Fold each of these.
Amino acid sequence: MANIDETTQEVLNKIDEYGFKQEGAFNLRKDGTALCHGDTENIKIVKKEDKSGIDVYISKNAQGEYVHIPVVITSSGLNDEVYNDFHVEAGANVTIVAGCGIHNSGCDDSRHDGIHAFYVGKGATVRYEEKHYGEGPGTGKRILNPVTKIFLEDDAVFILDTAQIGGVDSTKRTTLVELNGKNSKLNVTERLLTHEDQVAESNMDVVLNAESSSAQIVSRSVAKGESKQVFHPNAIGRALCHAHIQCDSIIMDKANVKSIPEIDAEHVDAAIIHEAAIGRINDEQLLKLKTLGLNNEEAENVIIQNFLN
Amino acid sequence: MLKVRDLVFRPIEDGVEKTIIDKVSFDVNDGELLVITGPNGGGKSTLAKILMGIIKEDEGQIIFNDKDITSLDINERAKEGIGFAFQQPPRFKGMTVKRLLTLAAGGSLSEINCCDLLSSVGLCAREYLDREVDGTLSGGEMKRIEIASVLATGHKLCIFDEPEAGIDLWSFSMLVKQFEKLHKNSDQSIIIISHQERIIEMADRIMVIKDGKVQGIGTKDEVYPVLVKGETHACMSEN
Ligand SMILES: Nc1ncnc2c1ncn2[C@@H]1O[C@H](COP(=O)(O)OP(=O)(O)OP(=O)(O)O)[C@@H](O)[C@H]1O
Ligand SMILES: [Mg+2]
């Protein structure tokens, strides 16, 4: 078993809520190289030859299995780019726990760009959980620019659960989902917290190409300090389909939140709804929590935590 | 134990000063149940909110257990032992019933106690523990969770603002029992704002608030004539 140092373990605890263990199917990438990895009978992880990254092959016999593929960066000034491809056989059912944590104690910027592609076969179900987190006393920035591409065949279900839970100075998230198979389903929950002078941008294109495909996208964010957030979700309906996008943001201090929804129906039976709301912390909620004995700051934290839970 | 002296609330609305609470003084004794009643818009909720520190009075003084709490913030008054159930409780996206009640209990609450609490306001615990306190709950459900949040911990004084509003008949009798229990089995003082005869019946004393003033305070027999007169008077003056 590979030795995991204390800083790395602490970051792992933040980004893998199941508790990272060197068991089952896993791949821990640290400072640009794979520190340890393991396969199971049904899940094989193969290092890419032509560029950095892995191919993960998930067989149809994987039923309720987990794959843990965390990324930790602790060396300041590292610029890490990685390509991970997931090949999910028809009928498989897996949970993929990914996430990236940067501990930057130096003065140079640390950056991780994870480019993930998911090819999901007929009737397969994938739950993909991704947590992004930054910490460290250094002045160097912590930058994460994930690209996620998802391709769904007939009856495939993809649950995307992403969270950026603080400490990331700059993030530009690009997501492309193609629902190419009949009855394919996408369910996205995005949670984002920015503070100080952080910036976050999220662009998401969801293309519903197939009959009876559906997408449900829920985005909740909190912007504190002088941070800036921009959301640009775009749902394109090219068949009889359903899509529902809901963006809710709490804005505090001198932050700035921009929501630019786009919905594009190219088929008469495409039903697409977008809802967006940005507002300050609800005063009534604050008052109620204060009557329970919480001070202002505690009350605000409770509201934010629950909103982003 | 609670002494309220000459409270005045006089906000400025559209450049015009409006007196909402007009020199209100009264006491609540240890273990006493005081029911505040009176016509809509009379100032009952405003008065209750001033007691909790949610609204800042313009004049007057509030003494609680010999301590001047007039300048204390809401959470400090909570720490002094005052509990408050809102007339219109707010909804919280993402907050579960269990989490809210746990906060209300002061940070920890066992599942069993949480269930008991919900049952005591007539809610089936299993169905509600993990539900969010959001727009999916009905008005009556919200009210009952609000009451449970005040019952979750011991207080020296509990203030309930129209706890019966929106609650069905069966749950209402349960609620009345809860209040009776709270009143009999503990030395907590209780203020209930209510229009309900059954709650008024329970009171040690009744206070009638109208046009921001105390119209009368005393036992049921003392106050009943004021109440009747007040109502006829209100009807006549509206024509
Ligand atoms: N900040 C304010 N500015 C102006 N008017 C106010 C303010 N707060 C309350 N009022 C007014 O004061 C009056 C009393 O309101 P309050 O909610 O206290 O009445 P209430 O007795 O609780 O009535 P109800 O029985 O309907 O609950 C109302 O006419 C209300 O509109
Ligand atoms: Mg009222």
Note: The interface with chain A takes residues 52, 54, 73-75, 78-79, 83-84, 86, 89-90, 92-95, 99, 103-104, 106, 149 of chain B (CB under 8 Å).
Amino acid sequence: MNAIWENIVDFMPSLLQGTVITIELTILSLILSLILGLIVALGRLSKNKVINRICSIYISIVRGTPLLVQMMYVYFVFPSFGITLTAFQSAIIALSFNEGGYLAETFRAGIKAVPTGQMEAAKAVGMDYSKAMQRIILPQAFSNVLPAIGNSAIILIKNSSLAAVITVTEVMHQGNLLAASTYQNMLIFTLVAIIYWILHYPLAIAVNYLEKRGGKRNVTASQH
Amino acid sequence: MLQLASIKKSFSGKEVIKEVDLSVNKGEVVVIIGPSGSGKSTLLRMINALEYPSGGDILLEGNSILFKESKGKKHPYSEKELSRFRTEIGMVFQGFHLFAHKTVLENIIEGPIHVRKMKKEAAIEEAKVLLEKVGLSDKQDAYPHSLSGGQQQRIAIARALAMKPKMLLFDEPTSALDPELVGEVLVVMKNLALEGMTMVVVTHEMGFAREVGDRIVFIDQGVIVQDAPPQHFFHSSNKNERIHKFLNTLTRNAV
């Protein structure tokens, strides 16, 4: 038993270093993918056929190819186009690109779920499309999709483990390195799993709370 | 004040409004009635270009709200330019459409602050006066979903008034309300009419039409069948067959 404790104490510093990188990967990618997702969602709702098509193609690429391939592509193929990035930068780009596609569809659904009367009422008080979007539609859409964004963030935490294959020293990669040098596979990967679980837990609680709140609000709204 | 000139509207090839001419004078209450599907809501929604007409023109105080002229040619206004005219013409919807994420007070000051660029304090000041006018001063911090339909509609009227429009459009303002709540909305509308507000009202409330309307416009199958003062329109000597049939249906349903 003591031996296990000693091992854990030995492994934790590098695993925790990795955890910090995992958190950085997740937060940065989440922010970028939220921005990208919103832009693409608006593009998909746009009446401009070219913009619309570009956004559809993007979403189709994200959905139709594995994240692992996207990540390898950014890291190993982009240099052929003269774009050389660090492993960390490549991982951020691949994760944001991937998550942005899914969030775009989430946002689009959220915007469409806002009743059309809200847009008409905004226009009737003299707002143009972009002001109505900013002031009236998006705030409601955003609060509609907040639980879904929370779920996406949870998936993003776990997806960030794929950055290990392009040598980003996040927690999965650190675990791999430790396992290769110590053969303590069971202990190390159990620790890695526990770390991911702990990272996801606050988000899971937040999603639960938001879903309950949303449910309640919809009940009061539908009574009228 | 307002002129619709040979206004037309088709939806995917189907003509809903066929060359309608209509003018509304300042201070006048024009009530549009007609069977469902007659095009009356479409006609109303064209007045503030929520539906863009397929043909014809709309003049507000002599100026087209649909086209601008340059080098002798007519160009349709962009969506952004159209929004400027909508500040002059308020609209009240059948489904109220209060901004669901904002309180009653925020609903009313939204347009004045963000479209009219009014100072917040001044907007709040005016909003409170309007709330008193519609009898809902105690609800300023409530959210729309906690209010009854009648209360929501009165707030919607206050929201439209806050923009200080030249005229108000009402699209079946009481049709979504429980019968006992219709009266409170009609009272507010009647008071507005007495104050001299120019109003165009699509409604099925014949009592309101008769009492408050200066003119009744009966529309069926996309054309104006009759445009007459209520005393003539509702008089037994009005022999128009379609109007007769329509009014009979209403009375039959009321029994």
Note: The first strand of chain B starts at residue 2 and ends at 11.
Amino acid sequence: MKFAVIVFPGSNCDLDMYHAVKDELGTEVEYVWHHDTSLEGYDGILLPGGFSYGDYLRTGAIARFSPIMDEVIKAAKEGKPVLGVCNGFQILLEAGLLPGAMRRNQNLKFICRPVELIVENNNTLFTNGYEQKEEITIPVAHGEGNYYCDDETLEKLKKNNQIVFSYKDEVNGSVLDIAGIMNEQGNVLGMMPHPERAVDSLLGSDDGLRLFKSILSHWRERNAITS
Amino acid sequence: MMFEVKVYVSLKEAVLDPQGSAVKGSLHHLGFEGVEDVRIGKVMSLRIESNKEEIEDKVKSMCDKLLANPVIEDYRFEIEEVVSQ
């Protein structure tokens, strides 16, 4: 399996993402510059955290129109796994690949610490390595992770089991303490916590590694069937 | 023709504005009574070369596509023709 890590001007978790997939998961991975116009040959797309375009206008608003985004949208429509973490999540929201939007954290502070998450749906290609309702520890680092959607969207998210992770305790003011959601098709996941920063117990937690392992095992299963 | 355009973007009424709430609290703390609500928004000033028929649609399209996020924000704009001296 070969991953692409999309690099925007202002991305700063791209190296961590690369390291997690290359060294801890042990798969192929390459950086793809946001001006590139092809994602051919990649089986999974990773949008890292950071501050693309300095968060100008709104988080993710300008990166959403980078040339590579047409290809990211295409890959998502084709059913390829697309993971957006933190700023990557914000970009997916702006691009309309996921519903809702981000507001400033309720306490207006940049929150940077490990948090307890609850796996709300382990029946996804991103979370098959976790137990349903398992509690895991993954760090957050964001100023705008206060997830918002209207009531109608929230009902849809609940009904379709699109809420994948929630915060065990209130963190940033998000509706229903949502930490991560996926699209209806189940191949696009956006989450504020950083699984790529939790891939080695030496650094506090390796709970994030299972997310990448889940993607890989899903891909292997699918390819074993089709080949 | 040259136009000066001002775009005002603010969070929708239904969306809680954490910055506005903090500023409201601070105003109360300073003793300003009667401040019931504070909403923080953005003002953008644009200079646009366009013909008169298209300018409004153009600005609206800019707002819908990029300048505002319709999920959480409302916008309005004012268009003024720049009269050359």
Note: Chain A has one domain: 2-226.
Amino acid sequence: MKILVAIKQVPDTATQVKISGDPKAIETSGITWIISPYDEFAVEEALRIKEKRGQGDVVAVSLGPDRVKEALRSALAMGADRAVHVNDPALAGADTLLTARALAAVVKQESPALVICGRQAIDDDMGAVGAQLAELLGWPCASWIMEETVDADAKTVRVGRQVEGGLEVFDLPLPAVLSAQKGLNEPRYPTLKGIMGAKKKEIKDVKAADLALGDAAPQLTVTTLEALPPRPPGRIIQGEVKDAVKELVRALREDAKVI
Amino acid sequence: MAAMDFALTEQQQWIRKEVAALARSFPPEYWLERDRTATYPWEFVRAFGQAGWLGMIVPEAYGGSGLGVTEAALMLHEICAAGAGTTGCSPVHFYCFPPMPVIKHGAEALKQKYLPRVASGEIVMSFGVTEPNAGTDTSRIQTFARRDGDRFVVNGRKVWNTNARQATHILLLARTEPRDAHPGKPFRGMTLFFTEFDRARITVQEIEKLGRAAVDSNEIFIDGLEVPAENVVGEVGQGFYHLLDSLNPERVFTGIEAVGIGRAALARAVDYARERVVFDRPIGKNQAIAHPLAAAWARLEAAEMMCLKAAWLFDQGQPCGAESNAAKFLAAEAGFEACDAALQTHGGYGYAKEFHVERLWREVRLYKIAPVSQQMVLNHLSEHVLGLPRSY
């Protein structure tokens, strides 16, 4: 069974994001890049499906500049068999739909039985690519899954989604697209042998032309990025406790309007 | 020709990154708890074993990864820089230098029997060289292995035997001939053994100490320990010389561990100096706070570079005694100064356990004493590098 995992390289969660001189982008110098954590769940789940079945092929795919190879190599070090890197300056400003179109073209070339991605990337939090990819392929899609079981014949997959107050369980015919929610699994750390073996695995470079994308213009363009307004300073209420409590209650009720 | 290349290879950078990620998944509170309850960090050691890190220097043919002292040094640095201190790195570094004489000088059968189990982490090592009556004067050790047919029978005692409470195996140095058997050659006549830690024949007595309560140091009493002759590492009578292949890496590793601990403390101090506001401004604005931290950073950088140079020389098969000793000396000073500056930066809170710096400060102090004291390093450099007459 072939499984394709779509991953995105994002700034590390500890990054202090700054807007760059160009107000449409963030300052990328000094950023540590990681695989988006939800996508790591996707890689882990694909590896577990392969291990459980005793055979299979896990292909990691990502879109982006040269630095993205590092994320793909991390997926290879975790255990993915090979990787596809869609690396083309023409796709530098890709929106979610264009990204999904590029991924759909890769999926058509690879013909996997299952595609897994994270529920959203933790940088722009759009959460659209998985569903758009399924739509473009005409495949069923289950998002934010907490558990999955592929049947023995690899014809269907049963998934569980967390919903208010419980778990929603349903079956999808394969091929399908799934997106991973936190709690699906605990991603493994790459082993030393995995790291050493990763450099021997193939990362295939793909250009927009190889994917026959035609018009590669994004439909969604970033106009501007604005920093959050600085948090207003806190207020310390002085005076006797008896009076201060009264003032606090008044301020919470009338100024902040929270009680 | 491309000389003077300070860049790490891509693989080395990656090793650093992944070790850091795994080590940092164990928060400071984990280490505080190990220290407080004096409990061995099994979870940590097993996590490193499962991910294959313990087999780093074991050749691939014996189930390891066949990497060098440089890579192992980078790993130990990241473990320490993650805040694990010597509590975290000691159990791991026992997979990095005690197996070295077996790898370099061991007979094929010995290597096949033990190295795969070292690489997997199944074997827990202890290192038995130092003795109460010999100290650094290794040729005067008294533990004696008497040949008896196809085996040796060992009697004696060792001190500062780390890990002995957990150990399954021990790398043991013993005399097989008296010290005066080869006039003028006191280091001959010692033999190295890699053998099972037979608790029926070895009694372990733990030593309470300043830091690293979780990882035991002990005095051990060996009474009639039987060691099969095939467990001799290398040649009978040449054990001390085989051991040298452990001792230089050990200096590099302990040196870079001290650097890592210094970096962990420095990072905490910098955060604290930035956030702690006294007299309406962060204390980091005061140069009396900032300069010791900046100086600590510079010293750590220099010490790390010396450690990596010594590691590189070892991996190139070149002599590295002077460099390994100098690296350990500089790193022990730099690590301690960084922890001390970090503790001072924290003021009263530096003395409090929950700020984690006091633990690092206690632990890093070890490196001025072990594996060899700063003074003995200077003796070595005076005599062997500067050519000055020996004073003792």
Note: Chain A has a mean pLDDT of 94.
